[in-house]
From TrEMBL:
GO terms for biological process: cleavage in ITS2 between 5.8S rRNA and LSU-rRNA of tricistronic rRNA transcript (SSU-rRNA, 5.8S rRNA, LSU-rRNA). InterPro entries: Clp1/Grc3, CLP1_P, P-loop_NTPase. The keyword Nucleus does not apply. Residues 1-21 are annotated as: Disordered. It comes from the Eukaryota. Keywords: ATP-binding, Kinase, Nucleotide-binding, Transferase. Residues 244-451 form the Clp1 P-loop domain. Belongs to the Clp1 family. NOL9/GRC3 subfamily. One of its GO terms (cellular component) is nucleus. GO terms for molecular function: ATP binding; polynucleotide 5'-hydroxyl-kinase activity. This is Polynucleotide 5'-hydroxyl-kinase GRC3. The keyword ATP-binding applies.
């Protein structure tokens, strides 16, 4: 369409993407350094995002590599049993650099780390709640499936379901997430050797000390009441709502129940081809980027963390299909509960309309932990509107805490009135501090989303492909924000879901931020095309705030989220915004109409991971060690202008206040 096109050449005031800041590392004693090496690898918390980010890299940090001879650090790591399967000559038939074929007995458990394809030659097994059996005779070639088991997540347990289950595990040549050269968050999470030599893409981990990298691994723990209730819930093709306290295992339970639906349970229960998944957790979504709630038709079993399937790919045959989604603000969502409920009601109504055509497809609703703690009234409202067949509550229902007891009583009253079956299950929090924080896992998810280039279907399994180059090497789309002699305006304007930002700051705040491209059918909004107020200097159109000092969000009934994008820079000369979207979603941009398109921002944190990709890549090319936690001690690497060394930032301060540097434009 006029004014919106792929760029052939980069011009204007653009620089590749800037990097997050890091804290200065203080020298420590030799004993403390030795203790640190014995502890599991840990990533520091990312700094709070700000619109004008100060990025600090410590170029003078020192590492003490040896403890003194008269001071020995005690080994504080604890060896943990991961599974009960043990290597024996009679239970392993093939063990090579590319294959491991072995036998599991009924109830025997196996723990693997890494990425692997697997084929069940005989019997049946369970992984992540999914039940897989050997192909029947005459049923065609064996089905090859792929599982992803990285170290930051609990190690999946493979369990034999028959007296004799023979499974062939295969080495994977292609990397599942080939980003360690552009982000240290992906470094050391699969099966690797300490010396960097090539090895099989997976390894058996009978106990945590068997890990060559000595990471703090933890096996997944599934209580018996989970297993029983999953079977109970899956026995009926109806609606199941999952709620509970934060970090109680809601997403894990939802994943296992979903896999149970899609794979069945042998002759006891048949598998179903698909299930609707209504994800109300915008902070930890399973099948979409962050900053949105969505309705997805799930067709694929889930055998990996969310960064291995960061979004449903539009038009991909046989894969998960995105139905509808809406953006949510990243912070202070409790101040926008009416909008949250409106988005939920629209998604649930969409499911209701689809369910009338195919009533045999069940619905699963996953709720965030904050909805139970801070939005309990809205949770009761959702319960009353959906009237699920089953309510799964994760937490301590027998708690003597007065507040918890009150909420349990209210839940019981609502579900009794609507004849909802209640399943009270044990919470399963993480027992060991993970090697990646929630913020870092979110960064991994978003990085994987923007670098995804497509998917291929092999032997019934969808495998995603990625571009491991920095985003600065990808040609952006141009959206014209003001009509000129050479181009037409191609979107209505910018809408803030965040706290109100003064218009003169929009150019800087939006520069390098993640936005949601939304399409609206509201004629009143469409009439604002070309009529919105604009910033004085750069003429960027924006939606004005209302009486409550906030911008009125778009009506979910007449709008839909098209895709998540990164506004990587502005070109004031041509009045264009340079936008990056994953290659998998570029097809969605072709049909956009200017008078229906809105840029919504304030839904996601600052993409600090994108700012340092070029610097990390250069460091990797020079053979420099990139430390986990966004710490780079590479004096030989020329840092881009948006990354500054700690000592340089210290010299910029005035009156004990550090200055801020712009992210892109100089």
């Amino acid at each position: 369409m006029p004014g919106k096109r792929k760029r052939a050449n980069i011009h204007g005031t653009y620089s590749p993407l800037p990097d997050p800041g890091t804290a200065t590392i203080k020298p420590i004693s030799a004993v403390a350094a030795a203790k640190t090496r014995l502890q599991p690898v840990h990533i520091d918390h990312a700094p709070e995002a700000v619109s004008d980010l100060v990025v600090e890299i410590d170029a003078s940090e020192k590492e003490y590599t040896e403890a003194s001879s008269d001071e020995e650090a005690p080994d504080i790591r604890r060896n943990v049993q991961m599974c009960n399967w043990r290597y024996q000559n009679d239970n392993v038939s093939v063990d090579t650099d590319r294959e491991l074929t072995m036998i599991l007995t009924n109830g025997e458990e196996l723990a693997l780390i890494g990425v692997f394809d697997f084929v069940i030659l005989k019997g049946a097994m369970n992984i992540n709640g999914a039940n897989f059996a050997a192909s029947q005779r005459g049923g065609g070639p064996p089905i090859i499936r792929r599982a992803y088991v990285p170290s930051p997540h609990p190690i999946s347990i493979i369990k034999g379901l028959d007296d004799t289950t023979q499974v062939q595990f295969l080495h994977c040549e292609d990397e599942p997430a080939p980003f360690e050269n552009i982000s240290p968050l992906f470094k050391g999470i699969w099966n690797e050797r300490p010396d960097g030599r090539s090895c099989r893409s997976f390894a058996v981990i009978p106990e945590s000390d068997a890990d060559l990298l000595k990471r703090a691994l933890r096996a997944e723990f599934i209580p018996h009441d989970w297993t029983r209730q999953i079977e109970d819930c899956a026995s009926n093709l109806s609606t199941t709502l999952i709620c509970g306290t934060p970090s109680s295992g809601k997403s894990n339970f939802a994943r296992r129940l979903l896999n149970r639906y899609l794979t069945g349970h042998g002759k006891l229960a048949r598998a179903i081809p698909s299930i609707y998944f209504l994800d109300l957790d915008s902070e930890k979504p399973e099948y979409s980027p962050h900053g949105q709630i969505s309705l997805t038709l799930v067709r694929e079993t889930n055998l990996g963390p969310s960064f291995t399937h960061p979004d449903s790919i539009p038009g991909s045959s046989g894969a998960n299909r995105p139905i509808r989604s809406h953006p949510l603000k990243a912070k202070n969502l409790k101040d926008s509960m009416d909008y949250f409920i409106a988005c939920f009601e629209d998604l649930f109504q969409t499911y209701t309309n689809l369910q009338q055509r195919n009533p045999s497809v069940p619905l699963m609703i996953n709720t965030p932990g904050w909805l139970y703690t801070d939005g309990f009234h809205q949770l009761l409202q959702i319960l009353s509107q959906t009237v699920p067949r089953r309510l799964v509550y994760l937490g301590d229902a027998r708690s003597t805490d007065e507040e918890k007891a009150r909420k349990i009583h209210q839940l019981t009253t609502v579900v009794t009135k609507n004849r909802v079956l209640v399943h009270e299950l044990s919470a399963v929090p993480n027992l060991i501090d993970p090697s990646r924080t929630d913020a870092e896992l979110k960064s991994m998810h978003m990085l994987s989303y923007f670098h995804c280039t497509g998917a291929v279907l092999e032997s019934g399994t969808t495998k995603r492909t990625y571009d491991s180059r920095p985003l600065s090497s990808i040609t952006p789309w141009e959206f014209c924000y003001e009509e000129s002699e050479d181009s037409e305006q191609t979107f209505i304007g910018c809408l803030m879901l965040s706290e109100w930002v003064e218009p003169q700051l929009l150019f800087t705040v939006l520069n390098g931020s993640i936005i949601q491209i939304v399409e609206t059918e509201d004629e009143n909004v469409q009439d604002l095309f070309g009529q919105l107020p604009r910033t004085n200097k750069y003429r960027i159109p924006y939606f004005e705030k209302g009486p409550n000092d906030a911008v009125e969000p778009l009506d979910p009934r007449t709008s839909r989220l098209v895709c998540t994008a990164l506004l990587r820079g502005w070109d004031p000369e041509t009045r264009t915004a340079q936008v990056l979207v994953p290659k998998t979603h570029e097809v969605l941009l072709h049909g956009l109409k200017p008078e229906k398109t809105v840029f919504v921002f304030g839904c996601c944190e600052t993409p600090e991971w994108a700012y340092a990709e070029d610097a990390y890549l250069e460091a990797a090319g020079r053979g420099k060690d990139i430390k986990v936690g966004n710490k780079m001690a590479n004096e030989a690497v020329e840092l881009p202008p948006w990354i500054a060394k700690v000592e340089d930032i210290g010299n910029m301060g005035y009156m004990n206040t550090a200055r801020r540097v712009r992210k892109f434009q100089q």
